[in-house]
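Per reviewer request, we include the raw input and output of the structure prediction for the construct analysed in the revised manuscript.
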Amino acid sequence: MLVIRLTRTGKPSQESFRVVVAEQANAVKRQYVELLGHYSPQTKDKALKFNKDRVLYWISKGAQPTETVASLLKAEGMAEMDKYIHFKTDRKSKRKKGGDEAPAAAASTEVAPQA
């Protein structure tokens, strides 16, 4: 399966990324099918430069962008990237809610006055 993902380039303290189409099974820094653009988070404007036509072409051929790439493309104005972004639920909040209900129920049964 083809994916549109970021590959890291640059110095350790000055990272920059390439937006590439690659086979999912390949290592991230290995061979890619096509270079689609560049992303530089270190610059003030967090520059993302990519070829929109080629991105749409590869998506039409079945390539799926990663969540990070989809959110970057959505921020640049590309439509229909929401279906590639999966919002994760906060697991801690679910645990807290479940844990708060049980002690409240136990406290209400203990408070009952005996006559």
